[in-house]
Specification:
Layout lengths: L6 H6 L2 H8 L2 H13 L3 E4 L3 E4 L11 H6 L11 H8 L9
Antiparallel strand pairs: 1-2
Helix pairs in contact: 2-3
């Protein structure tokens, strides 16, 4: 998942208009549903953590907390863990 899982971002930055013009309003609805269905993160071979955005600045986040997130919803500012996993950008400095 990434920026495209947020329907409001797709509306704001033109994806809705493009999908509707080229295909149909239903295609945009289906794209939105597909983006919301993608996983927030994955663990490969019990050793590699893969996430689109980045790590949360919350200390001690457990994989169980990520698994418990409802993924078929629009990201909201109040759900900081989901937003962190989707949109946190890497930083030059080391964490503390």
């Amino acid at each position: 998942r990434g920026n495209h899982e947020a329907e409001w971002m797709n509306m704001l930055f033109g994806f809705q208009a493009e999908a509707t013009k080229k295909y149909s309003e239903e295609s945009f609805t289906l794209f939105s549903e597909a983006f919301r269905s993608l996983p927030l993160a994955s663990v490969i071979n019990d050793s590699v953590f893969v996430v689109h955005g980045g790590l949360s600045d919350r200390i001690g986040v457990k994989l169980e907390e990520i698994e418990a997130l409802e993924r078929r919803v629009e990201p909201r500012d109040g759900d900081s863990l989901m937003v962190d996993l989707l949109w946190s950008d890497p930083m030059e400095c080391h964490g503390s």
